[in-house]
Write a structure and sequence with these properties.
The complex is a heterodimer. By secondary structure, chain A is an alpha+beta fold. Chain A has 2 domains: 43-172 and 333-372, Periplasmic binding protein-like II (D-Maltodextrin-Binding Protein, domain 2), CATH 3.40.190; 175-331 and 392-455, Periplasmic binding protein-like II (D-Maltodextrin-Binding Protein, domain 2, 3-Layer(aba) Sandwich), CATH 3.40.190.10. In chain A, 41% of the residues lie in helices and 13% in strands. In chain A, strand 6 and strand 7 form a beta hairpin. In chain B, helix 12 (230-245) runs antiparallel to helix 15 (282-307) and helix 14 packs antiparallel against helix 15 (282-307). Chain B is globular and about 70 Å long. The longest helix of chain B has 32 residues, at 83-114. Chain B has 15 helices and no strands. Chain B has 2 domains: 1-29, no CATH class; 81-307, Orthogonal Bundle (MetI-like fold). Chain B is 72% helix and 0% strand. Classes of the chains: A alpha+beta, B mainly alpha. Chain A binds chain B through residues 7, 11, 14, 90-93, 96-97, 100, 104, 123, 128-130, 218-220, 270-272, 274-277, 280, 414, 416-417, 420-421, 424-425, 428-429, 446, 450-452, and chain B through 33, 36, 64-65, 80-82, 148-151, 165-168, 170-172, 255-256, 258-264, 277-280, 282.
Amino acid sequence: MVGIHTVGPRRTAALRVTALGAATAVLVLAGCSTGGSSANGSYGFPQATQDTSSTITVWVDADRQAAAKAFQKAHPNTKIKVVTYDGSANGSNSFRTKMQLFDRAGSGWPDVVFSSQNNDAAWASQKNNGKQAFAAVLDKGLVPNDTLSKFTPGALNPCTVSGQVYCLRNDLAQTVLWYNKSLMDRFGYTVPTTWEEYEALGEKLAKEHPGYIVGAQGDAWTPEVFMWASKCEANNITGPKSVTVKTDSTTCKRAASLLDTLRGDGTVPNVSVFTPEFVKNYTGKVLMMPGPAWYAGAIFNNPQSLNVPPGQLAVSAPLLWKGEDKAVTGNVGGGTWFISSHSTNLKAAAEFVQFVTTADDYQVNVAPGYPAYAPAAQKWIAKQDASKYFATPLQPIATAGSQVWDGWGYGLFSQEAVWAKTMTPAITSGTSIVDLLPTWQQAIENQAKVNGYTVS
Amino acid sequence: MTLARQGDTLTAGARERRRAAAREGRAPGRTRIGYLFVSLYAFLTLAFGIAPAVYSVVLAFTNADGGFAGLDNFSKVVTDFRFWPAVLHVTAYLVIWLIGLLIFVVALALIVHALSVRWASTSLRFVYYLPGALAGASSVLLWLFVLDPTASPVSGLLRAMGFTSFVQVIQPGNLPAIFAIIAFWTGAGGWIVIMYGALNNISTEVIEAARIDGANAVQTALRIQLPMLRKWIAYMGVMSLAAGTQLFVEPQLLSQASNAIVPNDYSLNQLAYQYAFQQNDFNGAAAISLLLLVVALLLSWVFVTRGGLFEREE
């Protein structure tokens, strides 16, 4: 009987709470949809009504929290709210996913977003089902031209769509030739300057010192390290919705054949550098390693990975192909900073992205990667040289920074995902890359087409 | 999981009790408080089940601007180069998983039920159930380590099978079996416990009669227990089929962990996800979901009719 007595009042209370909740929800929804009336702005895109005292929301990945902290220290009067997300890393694509949901909802966009990927401008610069493009145009006055021009030549290519700049590059990921100077000296080898010499040295190493390696080809960015640097035209983005794919060229075949040869003799094994297997089998056994600038911190000078002692790791400029007079190189990632075109405080947002990409307080003193902003990059190199970790000066990294071949673009779809899904399993099962080039071509074309590209 | 005796249609008493209740002019248990109890569920079903389903039906037949699109979305997704491989992947996985589930769950439940040592039976049931207590995604993460020969506690077994690296383990041909094993490991325990409960519901008179007639344990299992479990097996089939066609977490996590060597469009559900969030084509995604629903409904119908799930014995 006790139960019956208490049911009545409790139920009424529950109803009251529900009604209150529903009312609140309606209020919140109404509040969301009234934010910001759009008017044509002076920076080349429609702006929301500006409020220079409003708090800006900044999305960063775990590593870039330090950038937000450095900004707060330097600009205590600008209010920022930091949200940590996965940085769109490892193919999660969360940056695009979330912005599309905000597009559908019509509100909620953050003011500034860091992405660890370099192909986000491809979608962020475009209208989406009739909705305003997410990315703010930066080179129409929002960021001074003087600042933009000091980025390393080519650094803003991933941010540039149809001639307009939509993001600022955080760091560069140009590929260079890393090598172990102590091992080179011990074995009596000289550092190769061409890919042909590199291949020959690999074969020699396999005979004289089996177990040692000159690279790895198990990662999704293998095509970006080897194919890109060989001017293989697998990803020539020629417009916002057009791409040229030609994997049957000699430039693709020479890189493919090099990979096949050196996989065959075990000096460029089909293993990812981020696996326990790699660390276990190859610690102390890496003679050379073509790879992005960030390999230094990510695998060589990392106690969790190869942990190369100070004074051994050296770097050499990108390799040439015989008969060519100018070396080109590839690129593996390098983060980007975007400003939302929906921001109600563009001034603070612009101040923030300029600080994190150019200020010494972050890019030189804190950031692990090679800065895209050239003045910061020079200071960063001086700082690294002073650390005495490297056996040779780091200037080749700066040289490589402006040698990234521009015939490989930054499209909407991931070349890394195509390679990983189509090529890696086939290579693992024993097929040669030279034989797989037509398969690769087909896979890229298919992926491009479902993303709305015309393929030529 | 406990199964109340009175709710079981296998026992004759339930029907009579219901008839008796009906004669009294009142359905059993229908009081006003009942509506309150069911209201929260009904509200949540409407908000997060029915409404999104209706929305996706609308999306599937319209284009991005909201205009009627007829069957355009369907023809688009069916001609997508990723669609039929995904259908094949899910089919292969379903075949392996459902057959494995039916055979092993029933066999293990029968064995546990036949154990006469009480503590052995109890602890086995607990052990079976344990993996199911881990949340879906975290148990898949655990498998990422199990499948990597350099980190796996069963690396010896993997090496004996000829696998020396993670990439070799996750070759496309192995994936349906891998996903089936993961799903079995995470989901089968709960079903074993349910089957055990169902076995407990078979009245002891029937089993004793069989024993007096000279049936041994195997004969009892095949001739008495299995036929009487038919509905429970069909129930498991329907539920597992619905879950299985929606394969998503396993390939999605494995895809991220393998840096996309396991494709992120491996299953139909993943393809729908790609449509919605990579291509920003919610209409195409809705079309795939509807196709999945139709197929799952058809297959479920087979299970329901063959398993006699809604039959009432007189």
